[in-house]
Design a protein that fits this description.
single chain; GNAT_dom; GNAT family N-acetyltransferase; seven-stranded mixed β-sheet; transferase; alpha+beta; Aminopeptidase; globular; 172 residues; acyltransferase
Amino acid sequence: MAIIFRICTEDDLHALVKISKETFVAAFEKDNDPDDFKAYIQKAFDPQKLASELSDEDTYFYFLEEEGVLLGYFKLNIGRAQTDVHDMDSMEIERIYVLESHQGKRIGTLMLQEIINLAKRLDKSYIWLGVWEHNPKAIRFYQRNHFQKFGEHPYYIGNDKQTDWLLRLDLH
């Protein structure tokens, strides 16, 4: 059984909307106000918004598949597409999600290794991301993989202002 990484195209829009909503809801719905959460989902994963992001030359979506079965996805930003740090030497991991049915199988580690390889091929000096301060499982995952906290920034779920920790991994 071979696991493959495949860059998403416009033809993947429907599947991207579906997995984006499904994984985000599974991860965060229980911890957020229902109205704020619904507003966020409608805005962040709107098909037109995702189609625009898919066509952005500085944004990359990848699917992780095994024998045609979608396991997870990630979204990377470089250059001007980055949401906070706008360093041309960096790459942002904006999203990295594994479907609940495939969690606990080290798929996140495979995804992270692929992201590191992509960043190195693009000659980036470091990778960074924002992770919700109340997501200890994700924070532990990134710390185990040598990411270091370097700051914080606000992140809104609807009208609810939350705090993301900014973490980075130096590649050189």
